[in-house]
Amino acid sequence: MAADSKGQFGIYVHWPFCLAKCPYCDFNSHVARAQIDEARFRQAYAREIAHMAGLSNGRKVTSVFFGGGTPSLMSAALVGDILHRISQHWGIAEGAEITLEANPTSVEAKRFAGYRAAGVNRLSVGIQALNDADLKALGRMHDVDEALDAFKLAQQTFARVSFDLIYARPHQSVEQWRKELAQALKYADGHMSLYQLTIEPKTAFFDLYARGKLTIPDDDLAIALYDVTQELTEAAGLNNYEISNHAGSNAQSQHNLTYWRYHDYVGIGPGAHGRLTIDGTKVATACEMNPENWWQKVMVDGEGMITNEKLDAQEMADEFLVMGLRLAQGISLQLYHSFAPSPLNADTIEFLKQQGLVEILANGNLRATASGFLVLDAVVADLAAEVI
Ligand SMILES: C[S@@+](CC[C@H](N)C(=O)[O-])C[C@H]1O[C@@H](n2cnc3c(N)ncnc32)[C@H](O)[C@@H]1O
Ligand code: SF4
Hints:
Layout lengths: L8 E7 L1 E2 L11 E2 L6 H18 L5 E8 L7 H14 L2 E11 L3 H4 L2 H7 L3 E7 L3 H6 L6 H14 L2 E8 L6 H14 L3 E6 L7 H7 L8 H17 L3 E4 L2 E3 L6 H7 L3 E5 L4 E6 L2 E7 L3 H11 L3 E6 L2 H12 L6 E2 H7 L6 H9 L3 E3 L4 E4 L1 H5 L1 H10 L3
Parallel strand pairs: 1-4, 1-11, 2-3, 4-5, 5-6, 6-7, 7-8
Antiparallel strand pairs: 8-10, 9-10, 12-13, 13-14, 15-17, 16-17
This protein binds S-adenosylmethionine (SAM) and iron/sulfur cluster.
C-alpha cells in the first residue's frame, strides 16, 4: 500500500490510571488502590519505546499524544523522560505537535507549567459539561468554575488547547445545549472536541440504561443536538473537520489526523494500539490492557504486545475507508484504488449520492455529507460490503 512509510508518524502513549471511573467510560482506565510507583512504570515505558523504535527505525516523529486514562496524573518528570526517550530513539521533527489529555481539577492544573517545560505544546482539556448537576451525574471530579479556571490557565500556558465536551446527555434539551455550547464557544480557542454520549457495554450507564433508569436523547433529539452543534461551531469559525472535531485554520489535531489519514503510529503503554508499515505491509499492534500484566510482560519480553498482525490488502482498504470517511475532506478514491484488491462499487456510491449521504468533491475525493455523518457506520458498511 502507498500509505505509509513517509507521511505523518505519531507516537501514542497510554497512561491507564484515573482517580475515579466515570460511569460512561469504557476506555482502558483503572482506579489504582495505592499510590502509583512511577519509577517502576518509567522503566517499562522506556523498554517498550526502545523495542518499538527497533521496529520503525529511521522515522521522525511528527506528533506525540499522551492519552488515557488521565495523563494529567503523571508527573511532569515522567512525561519529560518519555519525550526524551522518544527523541533519542526516533528524533522529534521540528514543530511536532505534543498533546496531553488533562482533567481540569485544580490539583492537575498545578502540573501544567511542568508539562510545558517537559515539551508538551498542546493540551486537550476534558471539561465535558458546563453545568454542575451534569458534571456530577457524569462522575466528574471537578465543577464548572474549577474547570474554567483550569482551561484559562491552560490557555496561558500552552500555544494550543482543545475544549472537550460531551453532549446528548441524559435529559439534555436542544435549548440547554444551545446555551451551553454558546458559553463554551466564548472560551474555546481554536479547537473543540464535541462527542455525543454513547452508551458503551460494560459501563455503569449501560446497566442503568438496560434497567430503564437512564434516559438519553432519542434519534430525533440527537439529530437536533447535532444540528445545533454544527450551526454554532460554524458560526464561530470552527470547521467540522472530523465527525466530532471542530477547528479554526491551522488548529486541527495533527496527531488525530495521522489516524484518520491512515498514516503510521506507534502505541506505547497498556492497551495502546498501533499501525506500523514494516517491509511495505501495515502491521496492527495492541498491548496488554491490564497495567500490571503489561508491566510484567514488558519486563520479560521488552514489549507488551498481545497483537502483532500483518493486515492483508482488504483489511487495510477497510480501515482506510473507516478512518478516512470520518474526515470532511473524505478519501482519495485514486489512493483507495491504488491498493485495494477491488474498487468501490460505483452503483453503491451513486445510490448513496442519490440518498444525499455521500458526495464527490471537485478534487475527486469521496466524502460523507452532513446527513451521511449522522449514519456514518451504515454508510461505511454499505461501501465496504459492495465490492465488485
Ligand atoms: C477517555 S477520555 C480521556 C481523557 C480524560 N480522562 C477525560 O476524561 O477527559 C477521552 C475522551 O473520551 C470521551 N468519552 C469517553 N467515553 C465516552 C462516551 N461513552 N461517550 C462520549 N464520549 C466519551 C471523554 O469525554 C473524553 O473527552
Ligand atoms: S472519562 Fe477520562 S477520567 Fe473518566 S474514567 Fe474515562 S479516562 Fe478516566
